[in-house]
Structure formats: structure tokens, C-alpha cells
Amino acid sequence: MSTETSPTSSVEMTSSSAAHSPDNPAPVIQPPRARTGRAPRSTRTNFEMYGWLFMRLSGIVLVVLVLGHLVIQLVLDGGVSRIGFAFVAGRWASPFWQFWDLLMLWLAMLHGANGMRTIINDYSERDNTRFWLKMVLYTATVFTVLLGTLVIFTFDPNIR
Amino acid sequence: MPAGTLYRGREGMWSWVAHRVTGVTIFFFLFVHVLDTALVRVSPEAYDDVVATYKAPIVSLLEYGLVAAVLFHALNGLRVIAVDFWAKGPKYQRQMLWTVVGVWVVLMAGAAYPVLNHAARVLFGS
Ligand code: HEM
Ligand code: HEM
């Protein structure tokens, strides 16, 4: 086959690749992300993608909930100076504001905790540190969400 | 610095740093805030006592700081969402950042009086 040109004639070889030939092939390199024996066991879920999506969806809802909350607590008639037990009793007499606060509590805590998880993953270098920081984070998050939920549902304006 | 990167060392990187710092700040505030609100289950007096600290003049400044953090995080968060989901988002990310800064400045100026006038009255008399 005299018409076939050899690839080496049209491509200029650099010194390292020039040494390889059919008789002396280049070493086989694993394709990127191939699962070898040394890779951790496959965790094939879309958890991180759902987390990413949740940050964005919850963020949009939180704009309304949190900014609305701040306007009510700090700006409208007298702002912070009128807050007290009686004020909270008045607000939580309405299921609408109970639901508002409940949704805000859950979304803000889960959004914030997922964000903190990302940050811990970014900065903690030792596996042990990372593990314990996350355990502290998850404990504090579960505690706060449960406490806040309990407070909304068991609120008693006639306490004492 | 490598040329042509969209973020590193430029406004985009600093907005990311600020987004992270404000997010952490709000998270820690929220933790304390749920604890102080839980005092309504203890007694009206316990709750009113702790809310009294929210009305101290220096604490009003902290509240203004919290408003600054929440407003930046919220506006920049919307920008991040636009960059991710809007086809032209990455192209206009810088213009959107300056829009965020502009809207933030206007809202902070508007929030100054309502949030701080109570403190000013306590400090300087009305
Ligand atoms: C300095 C500014 C703030 C003040 C004065 C304030 C005040 C209050 C008050 C008086 C309540 C009792 C219920 C009600 O009236 O709705 C409350 C509840 C709540 N606030 Fe705020 N708030 C502030 C900022 C925030 C921020 C920035 C967030 C979110 C990140 C937030 C999240 C919540 C949540 C989740 C509850 C319900 C707590 C529970 O379930 O026990 N607050 N806040
Ligand atoms: C007010 C509406 C809010 C919007 C629009 C918003 C939006 C966002 C978005 C889109 C992200 C993801 C950024 C990324 O993937 O690069 C994010 C991250 C984060 N958010 Fe929010 N958020 C809001 C409220 C909050 C609240 C109330 C908290 C705290 C309880 C919080 C804490 C965080 C944290 C800690 C991160 C992680 C930052 C990082 O990884 O650098 N956010 N936020």
C-alpha cells in the first residue's frame, strides 16, 4: 500500500511521543473518572445536584419571607421598639403568620445548614475534622429546627 | 493572575467572598434568634427581658449590620441564580453585580431611619 501516508510524516512528533511506535506503544492511561480499585465505592445519587437546586429554589422563597419579616420587625409602625411578648402573641394568633414563620424557619435553617456544609467541605482538610464539624452542624441544625417548630405549635398566650 | 478568568481576583471573586461571609453571619444570628424567641415558652418576663437588649442603641447598629448582610446576600443570591439559569446571565454578571450594589446602597439608605431612629432618640433625646 504505497499510497497510505504514515501519520508520523504529517505530524511533527515531540521528543517524548516520537519514541513510541507500534512496537513500543505509549503506556495506557486510565480515562478520567474511571472507577479503579482504589476509588471509593460508587455513590451514584444526585444528592449534590438536588442540594444545588434546593439552594436556588429556597433562596427565591426566602427573599420574600426574610425581607418581609425584617420589614415587619424593624420598619413598620415603631419597628423594634414595639416587640415584646404581647406583640408575638398578637402575631401568632393568626395561622397565616404561624405558617410564614414555620416555613421561614425550615427553609432558612436547611438552606443555611447546606451552605455551611459546603463551606466545611471547602476548608477542613483532615477527614476527622470534617466529620466532627459536620456532626456539630447537623446536631445544631436539628435542635434548632425542632425547638423553633415546637415553640410555634405550643405557643400559649395565657402562659404563667 | 491568569488572564481571561471570569472570577479570580476580580469583582466576581469578591462578591463570592461577601456572599459566603454574609451567609455564615446570618446562619449564626438565626441560631441565636430561635433560642431567644423560644423564651416565649418560658415566661413573658424572660422574653421581654431579652428583647430589651434588641432595643439598646448599640444593638440597633448590629441590627443595621444584619440588615446589610441579609440585603446583600438576598440581592447577590438572585444574581447568582440569574447567572446559572438565564442564558445571558454569565455575559451580564458584572453589570448585575453593580446593579446589586446600587440597589443595596439605596435600600440601606432607606433602612437607616426606620432601623436607627429609635437608637438616636435614646442616645440624643427626641
Ligand atoms: C433584627 C432583626 C429581627 C427581629 C427584630 C426579629 C424579630 C422576630 C420576632 C419578634 C419573632 C417572633 C414571631 C413573630 O413576630 O413573627 C421572630 C421569629 C422568627 N424570626 Fe425573626 N427577627 C429578626 C430577623 C430575622 C432574620 C434575619 C431571620 C431569618 C434568617 C429571622 C427568622 C425568624 C424565624 C425563623 C422566626 C420563628 C422562630 C420560631 O419558630 O421560634 N428573623 N423574629
Ligand atoms: C434572602 C434570600 C436568600 C437568597 C436569595 C439566597 C441565595 C443563595 C444562593 C443562590 C446560594 C448558593 C451560592 C452558590 O451555590 O454559589 C446561597 C448560599 C448560601 N446561603 Fe443563602 N440565600 C438567602 C438567604 C440565606 C439565609 C437566611 C441564610 C442563613 C440562614 C443563608 C446562608 C447561606 C450560606 C451559608 C450559603 C453558602 C455560601 C457559600 O457556599 O459560599 N442564605 N444563598
Structural class of chain A: mainly alpha
Report the end-to-end length of chain A measured between terminal Cα atoms: 102 Å
Tally of strands of chain B = 0
Share of helix of chain B, binned: over 70%
Secondary-structure arrangement, i.e. CATH architecture of the domain at 47-154 in chain A: Up-down Bundle
The third-level CATH topology of chain B is: 3 helical TM bundles of succinate and fumarate reductases
Account of the 3D structure:
The complex is a heterodimer of chains A (160) and B (126). Chain A is mainly α and 160 residues long. Chain A is built from six helices and no strands. Chain B is mainly alpha-helical. Chain B is built from four helices and no strands. Chains A and B meet through helix 3, helix 4, helix 5 and helix 6 of A and helix 1, helix 2, helix 3 and helix 4 of B. The structure holds protoporphyrin IX containing FE (HEM) (2 copies).
